[in-house]
Design a protein that fits this description.
By secondary structure, the protein is an all-alpha fold. Helix content is 54%, strand content 0%. 7% of the residues are buried.
């Protein structure tokens, strides 16, 4: 599930997938989380939903790729299909540098 804390101010997400079914894809998990998020808005407005969701997916992606590559940014950037400059910006954004 995605829940917003303080809907009128800073947004944070909590993807709680404790009931994840065997064989469920990432796409299905995200879809279900968004459906739950909208169901629990309780009249509050939201903004920057794209940024909210992407940050929840990107951070573990970069963490695991960097772990897999042993911290080698050149290898990681090739694996991700992005430039090393972009990788460095994303690592810094998520405090992974």
């Amino acid at each position: 599930m995605i829940f917003m804390s303080e809907p009128e101010t800073e947004q944070t997400a909590n993807f709680d997938i404790q009931q994840r079914r065997k064989g469920e894809t990432l796409k299905e998990c995200v879809r279900e989380s968004l459906q739950n998020y909208f169901a629990h808005l309780d009249g509050h407005s939201t903004a920057d939903l794209y940024k909210l969701v992407i940050s929840e997916v990107e951070q573990p992606l970069f963490e695991e790729v960097m772990r897999h590559c042993g911290g080698n940014q050149t290898h990681a950037s090739r694996l991700l299909g992005i430039s090393r400059g972009t990788l460095r910006k994303k690592l810094s954004l998520y405090g992974l540098d």
